[in-house]
Design goal:
Chain lengths: 277, 685
């Protein structure tokens, strides 16, 4: 898991403009004179214009920032199309990558797994040792049970001691339980939130031919039908659903990114970072 | 209005109409299990696409079910019926045309085709209130009318349509087979005028549909009359003797050749040639499948009286026997005057004639050859024929004796040659010699030969190429007013002429009977010509037609004082022939076999005749007509065709009184297929 997380992070950051992609973890602390060993791109040209001296901006690592990674491990997250990784694996790797990057920056990172309720959690801490615990927790996640995202979010909000950035990875197939009130309450407690939504293309396109006996992996209910007959209607409904969900999250100022399991994970992570920056 | 089915057994396939639904259910039951994150969207999509998807599937299922149903109905050949009459409403007038030709005597599965026809036709006799089925005598009185025509190549029996079913029933029971060929046209001509009334009208032909009776039909079906044909049981194979020929050979003997024809099941058939009830020869022969002919046996014969060639009987035994009655030439006595004797036998005038005379003797006849000078002392009484071969001058008084001999019924034959001089004989000849000797030419049967019994016999003998006979020299003559030229040269000059003087007959051959002037004596036809001519000149029964086909009149001369005669038929019945002007005529030769003319008071038979089926009529051909051929022959497109063993009455009712629904059903199936294709295209889009 650590290797996958690191590969995703490095793939995401490779070739990126470092100056513009530092993120929240870096704070401006002052200028110092330019030395030949410095990267020329670090020169503050505005300061040069004001002072006629080559000055380099210096940044200072932010401290006391907490991040909590919350992974949906309900049964629906175990779904995957032919030759693709499951949504759970996709979400776990992306969260692991975030943990790797954040802890490398010195952030305190915690993690939790939920399905029908909040399961194992690790309180936010910094340090490489803690990273191992987080990665291990994410790696052990197995898809099972139904989804109670609302309860998981409420429980998480109660347990987090101060202002925390909660990164939630889940498919939001929550049945009758609307997660929005819980997210609203999370935001009311001044926590920040962002959503990674791992999705398999079959969930959005229903690209199947023939008669199938579809079985709901969480409720066990079945439906016999011809996939071809439903495809058009399904695609329309799926697009509407995810658009509506993203709008609702946006209204709570919760950035959300769909991570398609057939796309490269670093690309998904990059989209996520762009969305939250 | 009711629907009935011509092939109701096909309705057993009705459960197949459930096949589309079962396949649909089976397809769903075999749906691949597929774990899915949630059914939330699938259910919503199903609700949203219900109209276009689920309904389309159900319509598709309905179309396929209807398609299966229509196919089953099509296979069961439904017929829509309304009312009781053809064309709708009213009682039906039906004329039954029952074939009683010889071929209806073919026996299939233990009964003849005529028995089949009678049994099936009896079901058409209207029944009275009490009702009765086929085979029982129905009561009279019904609104339905039935007529009957029994036919062969002529109408044998005709009953106009009437509601008296008992009358038709009795007539059917009285029908018997004939040995005659078939001609449907005769029956149609009789039946159609009865069907000019209004209302439902139909004709139903009961036949074996032997092709011969359907050729060259000139028939215009009247409007409103439904035509139906019920074809009897099909004879799978048949082989028969179609001809027997007695051929004389150059030595004066004879050969008997029988010809067979047939389409026979594989395997050998036994043949027998019998003569006067005694087998002359027998063996086995294979007649191949398909129309074929084979010369069966060849048997040497000497004294011939009457005989039969027969094959092992098969389904159509009527053509397995051929009756033969050669001319009664055996008792002819011939006195020959050799006008040109020679020390070398080969140079003698009668060198070639002698073997023929010896053959005559072996067959029971007798002959004597004398020189011209012996004629004066040779009594003519006791001889049937006097023959002068290249004779010049006759002894005194000989001409008068000969004339007297001929006038009293004797035969006289003169042949020409370098010594021939008509002289006093000119008045006895059927021609008037001009005295000139012409260059020869090819010989052929003259057109008028067919008017003479001998000419007919020579023509019927067959196998002789008369054109190969060449007369290098001819004694020119002009035909007399009462003469008949049987053989003539290419320019029409008489070669062989016959005539009559008093009660006798005369003949003149305008060339020699040795090879000086002609090649005739060396040709196979020579013995036949001689023996035929002797019989003819003897004035016996030769002139009676001894070999006839069924219904050909048998006629011939009768000796004076023998006018009271009887004809015994093959079935043993005795009937009186017409006797007029010293001749008899018997027309009722309606059965194959031997007919014998005898004095009513008893005694030796006067004449015999062998009557055979007309082998050229095609009655022996087992190949039945098909429905399409029948339509073509009748010139109609709408023909109700019923084949044995289908029950004729039931099928007739369905076909004639109703309308087959095959056409509309086929159209419906086409529409269903088009609908299904369109719907499938829509669903797959």
């Amino acid at each position: 898991m650590e290797l996958r997380a690191r590969a995703v992070v490095e793939g995401t950051l490779a070739g990126r403009h470092r100056g513009r992609r530092r993120g929240r973890a870096l704070e401006f602390s002052g200028h110092r004179p330019y030395s030949p060993s410095d990267d020329a791109r670090g020169i503050d040209w505005r300061a040069y214009a004001r002072t006629d001296r080559f000055l380099v901006r210096e940044a200072e690592e932010e401290t006391n920032r907490r991040v909590f990674l919350l992974l949906d491990a309900s049964a629906s997250m175990g779904f995957h199309g032919p030759g693709r990784i499951s949504k759970l694996r996709c979400g776990a790797i992306l969260l692991a990558a975030m943990a790797y990057a954040l802890i490398r920056q010195g952030e305190a990172v915690g993690a939790g797994i939920f399905d029908e309720g909040l399961g194992d959690i690790l309180a936010p801490r910094a340090g490489k040792g803690h990273l191992s615990l987080i990665l291990d927790l994410l790696d052990r996640a197995k898809p099972a049970g139904g989804t109670r995202l609302d309860e998981a979010v409420d429980e998480t909000a109660r347990r987090l001691p101060g202002r925390t950035w909660v990164i939630l990875a889940g498919d939001f197939w929550s049945g009758a339980y609307d997660p929005m009130p819980a997210l609203r309450r999370l935001r009311a407690r001044r926590h920040e939130a962002a959503v990674l939504m791992p999705l398999d293309p079959l969930e959005t396109d229903l690209d199947l031919e023939g008669d199938f006996h579809f079985r709901d992996v969480e409720t066990g209910e079945g439906l016999r039908t011809s996939a071809g007959d439903l495809r058009d209607a399904y695609r329309t409904l799926a697009a509407e659903r995810f658009d509506r969900l993203e709008k609702s999250l946006a209204a709570l100022r919760v950035p959300a990114v769909r991570c398609m399991t057939h796309r490269p994970l670093d690309e998904s992570l990059r989209h996520f970072l762009e969305a939250v920056s | 209005m009711t629907v009935s089915f011509l092939s109701p057994w096909a309705l057993a396939a009705l459960p197949l109409t459930l096949a589309p639904w079962l396949l649909h259910r089976w397809s769903l039951s075999k749906a691949k299990p597929y774990p899915f994150p949630t059914l939330e969207l699938l259910r919503a999509a199903l609700r949203a696409s219900y109209a276009s998807s689920v309904l389309s599937h159900r319509v598709l299922l309905l179309l396929r079910t209807l398609l299966a149903l229509a196919l089953v109905f099509l296979a069961s050949r439904p017929v829509l019926r309304w009312g009781r009459g053809a064309g709708g409403g009213g009682p039906l007038t039906t004329v039954l045309l029952v074939d009683v030709s010889a071929s209806m005597g073919a026996r299939v599965a233990g009964r003849t085709r005529l028995e089949w026809a009678v049994q099936e036709a009896a079901a058409f006799c209207p029944t009275g209130p009490a009702g009765s089925g086929a085979g029982e005598r129905p009561a009279a009185g019904s609104s339905e009318r039935v007529g009957l025509v029994a036919y062969s190549d002529r109408v044998e029996l005709a009953l106009p349509p009437a509601s008296d079913g008992a009358r038709v029933f009795d007539a059917l029971r009285s029908l018997s087979l004939t040995d005659r060929p078939t001609r449907l046209e005769a029956a149609l001509e009789a039946a159609i005028p009865w069907l000019n009334d209004r209302g439902g009208r139909a004709t139903l032909v009961f036949t074996d549909a032997a092709r011969n009776g359907w050729r060259g039909l000139k028939f215009t079906p009247p409007d409103g009359v439904r035509l139906a044909v019920a074809r009897g049981p099909v004879l799978e194979s048949n082989a028969g003797v179609t001809g027997v020929r007695l051929a004389a050979d150059a030595s004066g003997g004879g050969r008997l050749e029988a010809m067979g024809w047939g389409k026979s099941a594989p395997g050998a058939k036994g043949w027998t040639l019998s003569w006067d009830g005694r087998p002359a020869s027998q063996g086995r022969i294979v007649i191949g499948l398909g129309p074929s002919s084979a010369v069966l046996p060849v048997a040497s014969v000497a004294a011939l009286a009457r005989g039969e060639a027969s094959l092992d009987p098969d389904g159509f035994p009527a053509d397995d026997v051929f009756y033969l009655l050669p001319p009664p030439e055996a008792r002819v006595g011939v006195l020959v005057v050799d006008g040109s004797p020679a020390l070398s036998p080969a140079a003698d005038e009668v060198y070639f004639l002698t073997p023929v005379l010896e053959g005559l003797a072996r067959a029971g006849g007798r002959f004597k050859i004398v020189l011209p000078e012996a004629l004066a002392r040779e009594p003519l009484k006791g001889w049937n024929v006097l023959m002068l071969a290249n004779v010049g001058d006759l002894p005194p008084g000989a001409a008068e004796r000969i004339r007297s001999f001929v006038e009293e019924g004797g035969g006289f034959w003169a042949t020409a040659g370098d010594r021939f001089s008509p002289g006093a004989l000119a008045a006895l000849l059927p021609v008037r010699p001009t005295g000139r000797i012409a260059d020869g030419e090819r010989v052929s049967l003259s057109p008028e030969a067919s008017r003479n019994p001998l000419g007919r016999r020579l023509a019927e003998e067959g196998g002789f190429d008369w054109a190969k006979i060449e007369a290098r020299r001819l004694f020119e003559a002009v035909p007399g007013p009462d003469s008949t030229v049987l053989l003539a040269g290419a320019s029409g000059k008489p070669f062989l002429s016959v005539g009559r003087i008093g009660r006798g007959r005369t003949a003149f051959l305008a060339t020699t009977i040795d090879r000086d002037w002609t090649n005739l004596p060396a040709r196979p036809a020579f013995p036949v010509l001689c023996r035929g001519l002797w019989s003819f000149l003897a004035g016996g029964t030769e002139e009676t037609s001894s070999s006839l086909t069924v219904d050909s009149p048998w006629e011939g001369p009768l000796a004076a004082g023998s006018a009271d005669v009887l004809v015994e038929r093959p079935d043993g019945g005795k009937e009186t022939p017409d006797v007029r002007g010293g001749r008899f005529r018997f027309a009722k030769t309606d059965r194959a076999g031997f007919y014998t003319l005898s004095p009513r008071a008893g005694g030796q038979p006067i004449a015999r005749a062998a009557v055979n089926l007309d082998a050229s009529s095609g009655e022996s051909d087992p190949t039945p007509l098909t429905a399409s051929e029948a339509k073509k022959a009748l010139g109609v497109s709408d023909l109700a065709w019923i084949e044995s063993p289908a029950p004729v009455r039931a099928r007739f009712d369905e076909l004639v009184r109703g309308r087959p629904m095959a056409g509309p059903l086929a159209l419906f199936i086409g529409l269903l297929l088009a609908g299904e294709t369109l719907l499938l295209g829509f669903l797959r889009k």
